[in-house]
């Protein structure tokens, strides 16, 4: 993989990781469609993608720095007992929502299934279409919920009012994203909406819980780049690509949060259509 290909993949990853369109699915499918000479089954390919995700973590920390600062203040007891209890509750919500994907992902990695499925473009294309259907169904169910909410003069739940059961359910939704083609942000946003969050609130919670799951993957995979007999210059190339991914991710977050705040009635629909169309093109081209 040369530097130009690495940066191209990084920009794609930075945009698709936070949009509900599956960055993993794109990372597997698009190189096959564009004719990139990549060995997606190579031992360094998945760690390379995880290092790009580290750039995404930097973007999430930078964009939501106020959330992390307020959370830290609360945990340190600054701001009173109410702030401390709320911060501890939100932290536990994030931990609980992260546990299912860490456990399931660890089991898949242990049996060697995750990497085998990961590098299959046809599977990624097929599940990209499934991802689009999930987003459409999630949007439809959300619209019905909004109609009932309007009649009841109710409002969307703040993140701090989620229960530990709610967090566990969102965490189970997140496990679906271990299949390339199913978007982590997409399924967790749908899961959060099903627990009463607004699209913007669900996206916010999805982005908050992205950091521990991405960091967990990074801890597991980056050492393979350092000690796996990686060719000279690969780590340097991956580091440059990670910066490109982070910059792209910041732009993607800003677009996503604005879209979900201002157009929550149809915010998921364009992404759903995109996934279905791209997945169908991928299946057709790969079949031929």
- What's the rounded overall pLDDT mean? 84
Contiguous low-pLDDT stretches (5 residues minimum) are: none
Secondary-structure content class:
mainly alpha
Q: How many strand elements? A: 0
Distance between the termini: 26 Å
Total separate domains = 1
Number of helices: 12
Helix content: over 70%
Strand content: under 5%
> What order do the SSEs take from the amino end to the carboxyl end, as H and E?
HHHHHHHHHHHH
Query: Which value, in Å, is the CA radius of gyration?
Result: 19 Å
Query: Overall 3D geometry?
Result: globular
The major pleated sheet works out as: none
Topology of this protein?
Elements lengths: L2 H14 L6 H12 L10 H19 L1 H11 L5 H31 L1 H6 L2 H32 L11 H12 L8 H11 L4 H29 L6 H29 L6 H19 L1
């Amino acid at each position: 993989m040369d530097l130009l290909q690495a940066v191209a993949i990084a920009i794609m990853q930075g945009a698709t990781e936070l949009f509900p369109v599956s960055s993993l699915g794109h990372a597997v499918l698009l190189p096959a469609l564009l004719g990139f000479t990549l060995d997606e089954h190579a031992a360094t390919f998945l760690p390379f993608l995880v290092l790009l995700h580290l750039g995404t973590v930097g973007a999430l920390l930078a964009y939501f720095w106020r959330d992390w600062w307020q959370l830290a203040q609360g945990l340190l007891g600054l701001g009173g007992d109410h702030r401390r209890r709320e911060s501890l509750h939100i932290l536990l919500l994030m931990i609980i929502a992260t546990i299912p994907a860490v456990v399931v992902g660890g089991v898949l990695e242990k049996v060697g299934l995750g990497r085998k499925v990961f590098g299959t473009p046809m599977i990624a294309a097929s599940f990209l279409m499934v991802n689009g259907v999930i987003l459409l169904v999630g949007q439809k169910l959300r619209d019905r919920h909004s109609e009932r909410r309007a009649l009841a003069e109710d409002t969307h739940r703040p993140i701090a009012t989620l229960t530990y059961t709610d967090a566990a359910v969102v965490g189970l939704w997140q496990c679906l994203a271990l299949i390339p083609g199913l978007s982590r942000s997409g399924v967790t946003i749908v899961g959060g909406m099903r627990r009463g969050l607004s699209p913007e609130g669900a996206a916010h919670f999805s982005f908050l819980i992205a950091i521990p799951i991405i960091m967990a993957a990074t801890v597991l995979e980056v050492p393979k780049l350092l000690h796996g007999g990686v060719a000279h210059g690969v780590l340097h190339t991956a580091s440059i690509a990670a910066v490109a991914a982070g910059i792209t991710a910041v732009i993607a977050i800003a677009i996503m949060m604005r879209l979900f705040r201002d157009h929550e009635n149809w915010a998921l629909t364009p992404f759903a259509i995109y996934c279905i169309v791209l997945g169908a093109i991928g299946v057709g081209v790969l079949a031929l």
